[in-house]
Every structure is written in structure tokens, then in C-alpha cells.
Write a structure and sequence with these properties.
The chain is about 40% helix and about 15% strand. The chain is an alpha/beta fold and about 260 residues long. The protein has one domain (about 5-260): TIM Barrel, CATH 3.20.20.140. Strands 1-2-3-4-5-6-7-8 form an eight-stranded parallel beta sheet.
Length: about 260
């Protein structure tokens, strides 16, 4: 089985000491390609550099997570736009809205999200999207630009069935993480994942976050890694009553199509 992890934060400091070991372990587990997530200018630049050095293994995204929308100055956004002109940078983001803690003011988040939407239209690249406790405003902005966008993925989806149906009506892809492996808070997602059409489902780890709680034996640390995408695949397949090979095949094809991966 070939798998693609469409979201891993391998520029995170927790991978500095054993980056190569982590990548090798992922490849041994069948992870053929990894999208490195950019969440601000520093990580977007680092992810692009990694992907440029090894485009067979990595692609990257470039953008500002809503938590750090206040840092998205005009100068910084110009640098993000320059990164998006590089072939290994295959998506705009991580971008969106997060009203859960409002690390950046909601109005500023909306301004910066709209700037990313405009970049996605101009560069003709898909979006890597984040939404938490902000569905109404997020959906409103995304809907406004949808006809001019090539597509996108609502990454790490954990919201309601209503939100899911809204995104599917916009022909968005849906990214599922190890959240679905959580016996405490993932129960609704285990039901919702059955509603996602085969051609709209993607899987991801969001490493180093969201370590699947269903892993046995339990890992020694809480750091998630791309190799654990296999466990996300297993639980998704079980919830959808499909084989792991079947889910692996169409999620990999979906990732290649959405992000233009070879």
C-alpha cells in the first residue's frame, strides 16, 4: 500500500534530533509522500527548503495559521506569495479561522484568510484549510471565492455533520487525522467519516500532534509521526466498513489529484 500524509509539521523542533530516522520509519511503513505544513513565514520557508531538497519525498504548503494571523504583515505575505511560485509548494495555507481561543483577533483572522483565498485564486493552487469554532464565518468567506478556486482540503476535520455537508457541497476535500482514533472525543467523527464520498477523503497525521490513542503497544512518547498514518488508515477503514487497501488506494489518488503530485 502506498500512502500520502497530507499534513505533517516536520519543521517542528521535536524532529530536529532524529529527522532522518522519522522519515525512514515513515517510508518503511509505506508512506510514499509527505506534505510539510507551513503555519507561518518561518515554517513555510523551512518546509519549502526541505521539499526543494527532496521533492520525491516532500511537498509543502505556505501560509499563516489563524493563530498567528496578526503576524501576517504585508511584507510577510509578499514572501509567502514568492514561496507559492515554487513548484514544490503545492497549496496555500495553513489558513482559515479559529475562534476557539482567538490568539489573533477575529477581524484580523478574517482579513488574512481572505488574503490567502485571493492568493489561491491568483496562483491557481488548492487551499490547506483550518477551521475551529468558526464555521459560519469560514463557510461564508470560502463560499464567496469557491467558483474561482481549484479546490482545497478542510484539514483535521472534527466539526458537526452540518459543517461536513456544507464543505462537501462546496466540493472540498476532507482531511481526517488521529482524532478519529480517540475513544473519548472521536466518536462523532467515527460516524461522520462514513458520509464522506470516496473521492473527497484524505488522511493525515498532523504530526507531532494528535498521536492516535488506539496505537498498541502504546508509544513511549506523545509525539506523533508520519508512520502512524497507517493507524489512522486502519480506523478510518474500519469505520467506513472498507478494506485498508481500498481506502489507501483512493486517498492516495485523491491527494495526487488535488495537489498535483507526480
Amino acid at each position: 500500500m502506498e500512502l500520502i500524509d497530507i499534513g505533517a509539521n516536520l519543521t517542528h523542533v521535536s524532529f530536529e534530533q532524529d529527522f532522518e530516522t522519522v522519515v525512514n520509519a515513515a517510508q518503511e511503513a509505506g508512506i510514499g509522500h509527505i506534505l510539510l505544513t507551513g503555519t507561518d513565514l518561518e515554517t513555510s520557508t523551512a518546509a519549502q527548503s526541505m521539499a526543494a531538497r527532496d521533492s520525491g519525498t516532500f511537498s509543502s504548503t505556505a501560509g499563516f495559521h489563524p493563530h498567528v494571523a496578526s503576524d501576517a504583515t504585508a511584507e510577510a505575505m509578499a514572501e509567502i506569495e514568492a514561496l507559492l511560485q515554487q513548484p514544490e509548494v503545492v497549496a496555500v495555507g495553513e489558513t482559515g479561522l479559529d475562534f476557539n481561543r482567538n490568539y489573533s483577533p477575529p477581524d484580523r483572522q478574517k482579513e488574512v484568510f481572505e488574503q490567502h483565498l485571493q492568493l489561491a485564486v491568483e496562483r491557481n493552487k488548492p487551499l490547506f484549510l483550518h477551521q475551529r469554532d468558526a464555521h459560519e464565518e469560514f463557510f461564508k468567506l470560502l463560499s464567496r471565492y469557491r467558483q474561482d478556486l481549484v479546490g482545497g482540503v478542510v484539514h483535521c476535520f472534527t466539526d458537526s455533520e452540518t459543517a461536513l455537508q456544507d464543505y462537501l457541497e462546496l466540493d472540498m476535500h476532507i482531511g481526517i487525522t488521529g482524532w478519529i482514533c480517540d475513544e473519548r472525543r472521536g466518536l462523532e467523527l467515527q460516524q461522520h467519516v462514513r458520509l464522506i464520498p470516496d473521492d473527497r477523503l484524505l488522511i493525515e497525521t498532523d504530526a507531532p500532534y494528535l498521536l492516535p490513542r488506539s496505537l498498541r503497544p502504546k508509544p513511549k512518547t506523545r509525539r506523533n509521526e508520519p508512520k502512524h498514518l497507517v493507524e489512522v488508515l486502519r480506523v478510518v477503514a474500519e469505520c467506513r466498513q472498507q478494506s485498508m487497501a481500498e481506502v489507501a488506494a483512493f486517498t492516495t489518488a485523491n491527494a495526487k489529484h488535488l495537489f498535483g503530485l507526480k
